[in-house]
Description:
Layout: E1 3-7, E2 18-21, H1 32-35, E3 39-40, H2 48-54, H3 61-73, H4 76-88, E4 91-95, H5 104-114
Parallel strand pairs: 1-4, 2-3, 2-4
Helix pairs in contact: 3-5
Amino acid sequence: MPILTKRAYDAPKASDGYRVLVDRLWPRGLSKTTLKLDAWMRDISPSTELRKWFHHDLTQWSEFKKRYFRELKSQPELVKELKQKAKASTLTLIYAGKDITQNNAVALKEYLERR
């Protein structure tokens, strides 16, 4: 089944399948009923230190992914849970950032698809 990424501010659709927020912080201005999530996995998001280091500096994207992938290796149970969800149905990784190509959900999708 496919793994998708989607901004939290985009309208949810039935085709999203299992929707999981993969940000450490709740998206500003959105209520829990508006976001319509199946889960919030804040512990699979980048650490606060890594998030602050990256600070959406796109020149650091490659290094950010390396560091984030190292963090993900220490969370095998959460990675396994997402992989199982992706095998059962469409998995949509929800994020709040404005950049749609270089964010933690995109990096997480890449990590999950490689394994």
